[in-house]
Every structure is written in C-alpha cells, then in structure tokens.
Structure prediction request, 337 residues.
Amino acid sequence: MPINQPSNQIRLTNVSLVRMKKGKKRYEIACYKNKVLEWRSGVETDLDNVLQIPAVFLSVSKGQTAPTQDLAKSFGAQTAVHDIILEILNRGELQVGEKERHAQLDRVHHEVIDLVAGKLVDPRTKRVYTPGMIEKALAELSAQGGAQSNHATGGGPSHEHDKASRKTGTADHDGADGGGSAGAKDPPGSHLPIWTGVVTTRSAKSQALDAMKALIAHQPIPVSRARMRLRITCPTQVLKQTTKSTTTKAAHDDADDDHHAPTASPARPATVKDRILSYIEQVETQEVLGPEEWEVVGFVEPGAFKPLSELLGVETRGRGRIEVLEMAVVQHGEGGE
Prediction:
C-alpha cells in the first residue's frame, strides 16, 4: 500500500479540470476557473495565468500526479511535460462545474442583452430601450417560444386528434370545405422567428441577431433596427444613366410583400440617382460638390447597406463611394428627432 506523503500528494480544490484519454490512461490538468476558454479563444496568452500548477495528474481530486513512465508511454519519451500540458489544454475535454456553467451562461446572457439594446430603438421616438426592458421582452418571447416548441412536439390526446384530423382531411369546425386541415398545419405566426433563450454553445453576436429578428417579428414592445447614417458620393455624369434593373428598391419591397415578381414602371426607367435615393429613408443633405461629384447624406436600414454597396460598385464601376458615419443612430436625450 503506497504511503501518501507531501512529495507525491497534491490536493487542489476550486479548479476547472481538462481531461484527455491517451494510451489507455486518463490524464488531467488543474486550471483556474474561466481561464481555459480564454486561452482557447486567444484572450489569455500567459500559461501561468491558466494553470494552477504545471503538472499532469492521474486524478486531481486525489492529488495523484502522473508517473513519468506513463507519460512517456502515452505521449512519447521525447515529449516534454510542457508540450504534454499544452496538448491536454488545447485538445482535452473541459469539465465545467455547475457554478462555472451558470456564470458562463449569465455572462453570455448579459452580452446578448447589451448588443440588442444598442441596436434596437423605439420606431416613433428613435430612442434606445434600457437593457431591463429588452431583457423583459426577451423573457416574454422565451416563454412563448417554449410553449410553441412543446406544441410542435405534440403529446397527449389533442396531438393524436390533430394527427387524425390531418389524416382524414377534416377540421374541427363545420363548413371548412376541405381547407381546414391546411389551416391547422400553418397557424398564424407559425413561421415567425422563435426565441427560446441564450445558450453557451453559440457566440453572443449570432444570438443577438436571432433575438433582434424575434423581437422585430413579434413586437412585444415597439422596436425597429436603428438606422445607419451614410455619406454617398457619386460622379455626376453617371447619375442620369439608366440602370440595368429598371425597378427601385420600393418596387422590389412591394413585390416581396405581394409574393409576386416585380414589374418595371412603364413611365420611365430608373436612373442611378433614383436607385440610390430609393434605399435612403431620410435624406439629411444633398448637394453637388463641384462640377463632377454629387453627395448625399442620409439614413438607411442596416439591411440595405449591402445592396446599396453592390449597386454603387456595379453601376458606377467603382467610382462611387459609401462611407459609414454612424453604425446605429439613436436618441439619448429627452427631445425627439
């Protein structure tokens, strides 16, 4: 029976474990909480700030270090302990405790709330909402999303009845004329984005985009994307040229709303200037700078930035320029716009 002495017994508590199984042996390293993810993402570069002790263990909870013979057999005799630690740290399985998991989820949650609160505004006043109001609205959507998910998975007699109704092509109400089953399949709002809450497996930015889509679609509070403020310059000689597409952005938007192909206006084809102004919701200034350059400053929806950039690149052959003056225009004061 081995005698546990200070030389071969190292007891560590309050740690994050990274484990790796190699050569039929399981090895562990002891790290500081929250530092492993920072190391793997590149935020932390000092190994001393990640490891609680620069050693490889067979069991951290027991304080049992890995024998040199086992390390040489598993990783190779020429592999240094430092390189073994790096391999386990970079490729091993992170054991996350309950408190650490909760802290990570809470951190991502607050990051998502802050991102959403900085991008959405009240469409009437153009003022931002407080993070508390955004959090409350998302909590309401999360409850609705959970209920919709449970309804979609089904269960119980009502689910069996719905399946039987769809199978026979009948509806619960009389006078459906065979169309009731189609309505049952696609209830109102079934295709809207659903928000079910924050997870730790996705980036905060991508989850914030999903949250904004859900808030805009369901409108638990009146919200819209904060507009961008742009400066667009274009040579005056190309402003009156006819574009390859004779429809403006408004015509395309109307076509999307009506679910049919856009039709060109027979009155006159769209010019480059018409196409540019169709993307701008509010013109702040518009002037001719000298004999050869036209400039307009205005506000556009974030979704219009990419097609507007492509329009300038194609129609002006790279001579037009677009400059972002403000990524998100919001009102912070008491007065309106």
